[in-house]
Amino acid sequence: MNVKVKPHPQFQAVYQVMLEDGAQRLATKNLSHGRNVYGERLVRFDGAEYRVWDAFRSKLAAAILKGLNTIPIKPGHTVLYLGAASGTTASHVSDIIGEKGHVYCVEFASRSIRDLVDNVCNYRLNMSPILEDARFPEKYAMFITRKVDDIYCDIAQSEQAKILADNADLFLKNSGWIMLAVKAQSIDVTKEPSEIYKREIKVLEKRGFRTEQTVYLEPYDKAHAMIVAQSNT
What we know:
Structural class: alpha/beta
Largest sheet: 7 strands, mixed
Distance between the termini: 50 Å
CATH topology of the largest domain: Rossmann fold
Number of strands: 12
CATH superfamily of the largest domain: Vaccinia Virus protein VP39
């Protein structure tokens, strides 16, 4: 098969795959050889295996394609992932951080965390599933044994920025980074999404974050935006 893979020009451990029909897709190098997570295609190139990264299934991939300038998540990092669900994006984060990194996956839905464990975490030593509610970070503080480099938040709650900031108070390193996938309709269906994004940014700024960039995720996700910010402390 005439498939080619090259490193992404901006982001570490992210790749670009050129498929047989000329289509270009994002990918990550598969940390769990021979296994996919959500039906994504596996491709081999120069002795390595890559997982095609579906931007319609992953807000992080969508943000990259929509012009994200910064991905703070890098090889070797420790990441707190709030709202890991069944592991679609979390598994790509696992690929990016590699064997020397670690991702703590917080998920409240028992069905989702069961799928996360059975299909993903059992085959990836750099992932720890945590069945808890992200609104109460003190309940799982005992499981997170070190400060994290980054927090990635993708939760369907009405106070998304506040919940992220509460977790950052406990777990984020000084000058650490956050990525917040804002779901406007989970916050207030009566307001324009742009108003919601501005409101969440203000919450983060009041809690000591400097916003680096906001990327709107349409057409991949309606009424969603990705906010990238860094702690000022």
